[in-house]
């Protein structure tokens, strides 16, 4: 019987990063993966394919709409969707191979099959009707998440799709109806809208992107509407009739009232994700779940069963790849007897649309609700020189600082490259820095990041360019 120091179940960003860190710390490690390829949701049907399509569709749109004003004259771009899907697949393959390489480099055994926990120190791995049992000192559950489904609406991944189907449509839908104005709806809605689809987003709440700062979300909605998105807020899809050539979706006001019917070629259901624990045998093994089906852990990622830990989408917290990765590193260090730690106050979130939206720390709504006295500094990209010359002036930077100590509590950005810009705020917040620290840090000119410095100056009411 094979024996290990650590067996990690699942090879998404949480699992494979955990395995690498554990190997670096001298452990003999195996990963168990039921999927044909390594990398989990993120590499195969999540972060990476969506970013490839976002990039390619943005280039398509730029060529059609932005080149001419810069004096770059091209004939009207034509869409070759199979080639675009091939570009996406090459990106997936490259990253998946990268994970395979990391497993080899770190001498991590890859066991293909479905992992089941038999008890402390025992995992069964089943594939093709055969099962083997492996022994290990520790087990990390990193089995991720699955799509949330709408009762009565069957996802066929052709016409009624989840994000997985929406990443592989074989033609541009004439009309795309999106259920849920969260991250997936707005990112994948952007892809298909840029390629020519009419997009209508139905959202249960009265705002888009719940959880993001309200002021940022409001401006983002306006920008998306200007791009051509239509929103139906405070509404829910209760049924989709797929018997005819076009789909007929029944939409009801969230607060109750008369229903209406909307026609669409494709319906994308993206109303969140749920933890994935199927086939793990958790109940029998004695691993407790919380009331939302997530594996319950203590502050050191330990589950209710000795020697079994859990990280990533399958536990509480934001369902983000970088959160899973950081937990993977932390739990490996804890198992090795070190002081692994994740600072949940400084986990950035990014929506990779045009413009991008990024955020770290508290929103204005959260500070109000917690009764924290705060000051706000804002700076629009219309007043940022680099954005002006590039004619990409949508959006602004917003900094929230503690009114007494000036410590930065939250930074929210809407604008081109906001996803790259947020990290100076993360570093500052990780060190407990103040708006004054940011305002006195020299920023290269001309960069979009100068808008962050100006927003920090605006906290003290002394922005220069406004
Ligand atoms: P996963 O990546 O879900 O990996 C879990 C792995 O476990 C899978 O490979 C699965 O096959 C395997 N597994 C499950 N059960 C078993 C078992 N019993 N035995 C063996 N193997 C098993 N996050 C970001 O931060 N940025 C983004 O841009 C982003 N974009 C996204 C876009 C889309 C369309 C989607 C759907 C998600 C996106 N996410 C993004 C979220 C991100 O993909 C997840 O947060 C991340 O993948 C979670 O990592 P994980 O390791 O916890 O689990
Ligand atoms: P989400 O939680 O971001 O958004 C779901 C939206 O659907 C919410 O606005 C919610 O109010 C709405 N909703 C729920 N039920 C509804 C109903 N019946 N009718 C209408 N609207 C309804 O979830 P999403 O977009 O599915 O993404 C899942 C997760 O994947 C994200 O939360 C995120 O963690 C991760 N992800 C991250 C990305 C990134 O970091 N860029 C990109 C894509 C996904």
Automatic annotation (TrEMBL):
Gene3D superfamilies: 3.30.390.30, FAD/NAD(P)-binding domain
E.C. designation(s): 1.8.1.4
Origin: domain of life: Bacteria
Domain Pyridine nucleotide-disulphide oxidoreductase dimerisation: residue ranges: 347-456
GO CC annotations, alphabetized: cytoplasm
Swiss-Prot/TrEMBL catalytic activity: N(6)-[(R)-dihydrolipoyl]-L-lysyl-[protein] + NAD(+) = N(6)-[(R)-lipoyl]-L-lysyl-[protein] + NADH + H(+)
Binding note for cofactor: Binds 1 FAD per subunit.
Domain FAD/NAD(P)-binding: 4-328
GO BP: 2-oxoglutarate metabolic process
Essential cofactor(s): FAD
Ligand binding (NAD(+)): 180-187, 203, 272
Catalytic residues of the enzyme: 445 (proton acceptor)
A GO molecular-function descriptor: flavin adenine dinucleotide binding
Note: The active site is a redox-active disulfide bond.
Similarity section: Belongs to the class-I pyridine nucleotide-disulfide oxidoreductase family.
Classification via NCBIfam families: lipoamide_DH
Full protein name: Dihydrolipoyl dehydrogenase
